[in-house]
């Protein structure tokens, strides 16, 4: 089950459009399940739902990993005046003890500040530069106009890991991706992209450290796609992934075939409530164990997340063999 901080860090990277196996994998927003459904910024003006008002709220999220009435992890989320998370505190050793985020006028995260050990000193700073418009093409974490990303691993003001993205002046679509993995100012890998006459990405090809290529095929929905990735660019497909979106451009199905054997190693389908919040995520996994999972969300009368119950059935009897329960407590103006 993804960490709660995943969506906060999600989208910082993910620059190869759901097909990356570089450092981008740590936070590819295309593959993470957003476990705090109330925090997403809606970029589709045709939607007719309004999420709960989170402006100025504080949420405490308690995780009971065995569903045995003991709390192993506690996280606190603080929301700003726009209802966006500006700070998260966590006692999970696998997450930063404190994570602060800044957003631009469109509600997009432009800076992450990470305090790993809770000493009130930021150990890492991540920044990204974005254009004026949100481009939601189902790729690049749904944010197609990222122009640069910098990871400053010791908070000294110098990029230790850098990504740079160039876009076509006429279409706004990404044309070039460049990666510097060690902050020496020299790019260690580049990618170029091809598009069809509907401005849909149909291929990319990467060189040097990133050497690989990919081909996209599209389904019935305007954003639905399958991408086949050839690592090493040797003519052999090494992995596949598939994404389906609904009319509101929300990710409703994702699947991964990690070894291109024609069998999904994981898949997940998401069901939304009428107000746009997540109701249910269910699917299958094959690693580290084969089983079927189900994560169901409940909300209080005002629309705030109240509980999420995750279960994994590895025996096939329909009864979860492992369960994790998360509960939310809210304090709002």
Descriptive labels:
333 residues; mainly beta; 20 strands
Query: What's the tally of helices?
Result: 1
Structural class: mainly beta
Terminal-residue CA separation: 31 Å
The largest sheet is: 20 strands, antiparallel, barrel
Give helix % range: under 10%
Secondary-structure element order, N to C: HEEEEEEEEEEEEEEEEEEEE
Overall residue-averaged pLDDT value = 84
Shape: globular
Can you tell me the residue ranges where pLDDT is under 50 for at least 5 consecutive residues? 1-7, 10-15, 17-49
How many strand segments? 20
Which strand-content bin applies to the residues? 35-45%
Radius of gyration: 20 Å
Oligomer: single chain
Written account of the structure:
This protein has 333 residues and is mainly beta. The protein has one helix spanning 6-9, and strands at 58-64, 73-79, 85-90, 98-103, 109-115, 124-130, 146-152, 161-167, 174-180, 189-195, 201-206, 212-218, 225-231, 239-245, 251-257, 266-272, 278-285, 291-299, 305-313, 322-331. It contains one helix and 20 strands. It has a 20-stranded antiparallel barrel. A hairpin with a 5-residue loop joins β2 and β3 (85-90). It starts with 5 loop residues before the first helix and ends with a strand. Residues 1-7, 10-15 and 17-49 have low confidence and may be disordered.
